[in-house]
């Protein structure tokens, strides 16, 4: 269900791992997690199993994530509407107010998109199962 998508190394050798997930599957699983279903919680945490024992870097601040499995933000993959991306966050970034956290995530996504394509990105945040993001035309 998941595969490493993009990896970079920081000075502490913690690596940023962004998981590419089947969007419909992860959205359905996330809805079940929100009902408190323990099997669903275990299943969503298991997406990180291949990275147990590895130093993961926080998507927002690049510090090593001290928890495993990490808290992750999940957003739509701009390049592929059938996919979603899970990015790990450290406890400090996780505990930011939600709107601030999303604002920082969107800034990071825009910077990554600009670096890759040279173009600006218009990113729309929407609840899971709805449209997450789209490219500026
Ligand atoms: Zn962080």
Helix content, binned percent: 25-40%
Let me know the largest β-sheet: 4 strands, antiparallel
Bound molecules: zinc ion
Outline: globular
Spatial sequence of strands, sheet with the most strands = 1-2-4-3
Distance between the termini: 31 Å
Radius of gyration: 14 Å
Q: Would you tell me the structural class of the helices and strands?
A: alpha+beta
The helix count comes to 4
What's the layout of helices and strands?
Layout: E1 3-9, E2 15-22, H1 23-33, H2 38-45, E3 71-76, E4 83-89, H3 91-94, H4 98-117
Antiparallel strand pairs: 1-2, 2-4, 3-4
Helix pairs in contact: 1-2
Zinc ion (ZN) is lined by residues 58, 60-61, 63, 89-90, 92-93.
List keywords for this structure.
4 helices, disordered C terminus, 20% strand, 4 strands, 31% helix, 137 residues, four-stranded antiparallel beta sheet, binds zinc ion, globular, alpha+beta, single chain
């Amino acid at each position: 269900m998941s595969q490493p998508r993009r990896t970079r190394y920081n000075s502490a050798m913690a690596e940023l791992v962004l998981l590419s997930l089947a969007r419909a599957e992860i959205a359905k699983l996330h809805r079940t997690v929100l009902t408190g279903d323990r099997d669903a919680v275990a299943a969503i945490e298991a997406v990180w199993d291949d990275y147990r024992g590895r130093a993961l870097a926080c998507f927002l601040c690049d510090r090593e994530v001290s928890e495993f499995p990490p808290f992750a933000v999940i957003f739509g993959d701009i390049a592929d509407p059938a996919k979603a991306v899970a990015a790990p966050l450290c406890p400090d970034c996780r505990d930011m107010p939600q709107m601030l956290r999303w604002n920082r995530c969107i800034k990071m996504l825009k910077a990554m998109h600009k670096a890759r394509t040279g173009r600006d990105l218009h990113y729309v945040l929407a609840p899971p199962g709805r449209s997450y993001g789209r490219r500026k035309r």
